[in-house]
Amino acid sequence: MSNRGRLFVLSGPSGVGKGTVWQEVVKRVDNVKVSVSATTRLPRNGDVEGVTYFFKSPEQFDAMIKNGELLEWAEYNSNRYGTPIWAVEEMLDDGVDVILEIDTQGALQVKEKLPESVLIFIAPPSVEELLSRLRGRATESEEEIFRRIAAAEGELALQSEYDYVVVNDDLDTAVNEVEKIFLGKVL
Q: Please, what's the b/e burial string for 133-155 (b: 16 or more CB within 10 A of its CB; e: otherwise)?
């Protein structure tokens, strides 16, 4: 019997509550860690190398891509982000379950490379509710909100590619459902 950890990938549109869901799951479920991504973006105040991100120069990131060192990667706002295979494999080999919070494009890349990974799509109850949540955050312009809604519609079209779809209509219910998936108690 293997003591290898399992890889869980959480995706969903911006504003759906993915981060809040996984933060609650990590509090409830033992032996779960969140993967740290590599990025070409510059560190901000409070960022810690190896905790917030693995900060890489564009040249270092290019080498990681060329050498096949990333499970997945994508470009966002002129910076690149990716999941180093070695960091995930190290935790899995130590028997730790790993969470990746990544976009749908990256999730499908991970599933192709690691078919045993468990993909969980966090969905909004409706696009209208998602729009309301994004506006309620008051962190983006209307133009940015509409860009995010357009992206969300594309992401929602991919939810059938996932092993599980959890609608985040009520946070406690969504967290309970994801927790059951982690614990293998889903019917």
A: bbeeeeeeeeeebeebbeebeeb
- Which of 54, 44, 112, 45 has its CA nearest to residue 82? 54
- CATH number, domain of 150, equals 3.40.50.300
Residue 2 inside a domain? The answer is no
In the structure encoding, which two tokens stand for residue 159, read together?
Answer: 């939810």
List, for residues 84-127, the tens digit of each pLDDT value.
999 999 999 999 999 999 988 899 999 999 999 999 999 998 88
**Is 1 inside a domain boundary?**
no
The whole model's pTM is what?
0.87
Phi and psi (nearest 5°) for 35?
Answer: -70, 145
Note whether residue 111 is domain-resident: yes
**Element (H or E) spanning 153, and its range?**
helix 142-156
